[in-house]
């Protein structure tokens, strides 16, 4: 074999070695190698197969029709609310932002909208990792990607083709910029979501209690400016006020996981519904007080935990709560990586199963029980997560008060108290039979 041939063989071997899959040498590497392909294929399946196939519930069609009507100067707010089909409920500012989707035909527009939401969710997850100081090389990255795209909230957001993926990106960007004290840009991120739907409005309590007043300039200013632009361009802007807003204020008894929605569906007495709402209001207020009183200086924990409490409470106690809103709780769930997280217990993840799982509990054998489990799982999940957070914080408070360390906060003792080292035992004299036998130099000689 000539030198040239030997060199060619060497180059071929080097090239093939580059293609050889690496073998995991640590537990983290093995988990990464195992989960990344599963996570990527799950994302592709949700986007290319389930989302493109669609479902009987189609949130995109009324939005496309409204955008098309807006571009052609026709009335937009013409929905018949006596039907349970998806309705167009966005304000004129949202119509203005959504108008470009009607420039092309509905099928291609829907595909692009699905892709835009999927990309927004992936970017939001990356920002969430960075918020907690994690990167793509951590085992949290594939776990987070796989878990989110396996959940009901992400799957149905893509299948129903609504805007929640972009709203999630706005939420995570808001939290990241809020933590970095970039107040004006933080307001821009959440203000754009307000222009479409006010689902994140409770989060404005965060900059309020943190004294970040500039957030409100852009958070309120952007939707107002977009409304001022859209109002004269709309054929029927006042119909949003007269026709749509009253519907939004009602508590419907279908596709509604709020206490009032399920209460009406199952025919609970009005007094019982208001009692349940009152009890959970007290639980939420107590949790918020404990978080503000003892955790506001632990910024990351305070921001992500408080945001989870505020959003869950708004859906459970408000007039409308739908399961796929739970996507906005990803920051709370991700807080499990923090040592003092309220998510480090099994009841918390039982609650997560309730409002995140894609499992259907409808049963052809146990019809009534299956239907009840299916319709109640989100309500029970949201209720349980609020109870868990309240319980964890209350137990911490009681323990800290008992131990007389409230001045140091209410974190568990093992997190705030230094480890107590066991004192070393004093040296003891050796027993007679343990005396070392030392030979003299003369004896050795």
UniProtKB/TrEMBL annotation:
Q: Does the keyword Transport apply?
A: no
Q: Where is the segment annotated Disordered?
A: 417-445
Task: List the Gene Ontology MF annotations in alphabetical order.
Answer: hexosyltransferase activity
**In what ranges is there compositional bias, type Basic and acidic residues?**
418-430
InterPro entries membership = GT87 (IPR018584)
The regions listed as transmembrane in this protein's record are 111-128, 158-178, 184-206, 213-233, 271-292, 299-317, 379-399
Q: Look at the named UniProt entry and state the broad enzyme category this protein falls under.
A: transferase
Say yes or no: keyword Glycoprotein present: no
Annotated localization: Cell membrane
Superkingdom: Bacteria
For this protein, the Enzyme Commission number is 2.4.2.-
Classify the protein's membrane topology as the record does. Multi-pass membrane protein
A GO cellular component annotated for this chain's UniProt record is: plasma membrane
Q: Which UniProt keywords apply?
A: Cell membrane, Glycosyltransferase, Membrane, Transferase, Transmembrane, Transmembrane helix
For this chain, the family text in UniProt reads: Belongs to the glycosyltransferase 87 family.
Q: What is this protein called?
A: Arabinosyltransferase AftC
